[in-house]
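Researcher: We're teaching a course module on how sequence relates to structure. For the next exercise, students receive a sequence and then see the predicted structure as tokens, so they can try to spot secondary structure elements on their own. Here is the exercise chain.
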Amino acid sequence: MTQKYVYLFNEFDEAMAKCESDWEGVRSLLGGKGANLLDATRLGIPVPPGFTVTTEGCNDYLEAGEEFPGDSWEQILAAVKALEEQSGKKFGDPDNPLLVSCRSGAKFSMPGMMDTILNLGLNEQTLAGLISQSGNERFGYDSYRRFIQLFGKVALGI
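Model: And here is the predicted structure for the students to work with:
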């Protein structure tokens, strides 16, 4: 059986089943923010579609020398495809771009302690689509600036 490393926000029941209906187990599996986003989605609170990579996935990635374990990369790609279907947008589409925010997590979240990358998916081509959709050029360029700053800091260490 394949290890499940990715849970969509609408997979509350599946996460609870894996953790034998233990909420603290779900928090350990998905981190506090990931578990809370699943719960908020289950409760019908308007949460944009998303997914969480498990803490097991992170640990296995690190243990494998920063290589994606098993089929975790394929699970991530399938989750992005699910986000495209749920949002009606497409990652990398210059006319209707899907933008994703990535945030690290832990069982207990502490404000200011998490690395975040906003607007993953913005580039020179998708920026035009964001500006066109929003009707706000300043918003588009500010979003792109934030992406470049955060990606540089978090992913590249610059």
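Model: If you want an answer key for the exercise: The two ends are 40 Å apart (CA to CA). Helices lie at 12-18, 23-42, 55-63, 72-87, 124-134, 137-155.
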